[in-house]
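Amino Acid Chain and Its Fold in Token Form
===========================================
Purpose: to set a sequence beside its fold so the mapping can be learned.
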Amino acid sequence: MFNKILVALNNNDMGRQVFDNALYLATANNAELLLLHVISAFDDNYLNASAMDTQTHYGTSQTHGVEYYVGQWENLKQEGIEFLTLLNNQAIAKNITADFTQELGEPSRIICDISRSWNADLIVLGRRGLSGLSEFFLGSVSNYVLHHAPCSVLTVQGLTSVTPDNFVATSAM
């Protein structure tokens, strides 16, 4: 049924849950996996330029701040590659054909673009469980992918916690 499964991952517990679901499907369908990690400057887990220390003394160079910032991005990229390599090796150990890629940019568009160019039959990705204003302002990768993907999409629901934003909706059910 599914021959090529694109797995969109983050380096966190949810990403691990997404991978486990995709690995199960790949095993059941003898499918090929492509693991994808997208580094986005707009994700809460990553650095942003506004966090860089711009408070310097008059006349001093900001070179150290920029070098530090670029170094942190390089660390994030390396952590992503290590995470993908670990998962890729786990898939190969289960006799699943697997490969991985890491991209920089806007996750929802990159996921759809890669699924299109790789001819994926299925995209597996996580869902943070955002709703209301949080989803409106932060955007929803899973929502975008559901509406723009060229193939089937499986969203793995993350654990949601009760916050003031979703308490009314949760308690009303």
About this structure: The radius of gyration is 19 Å.
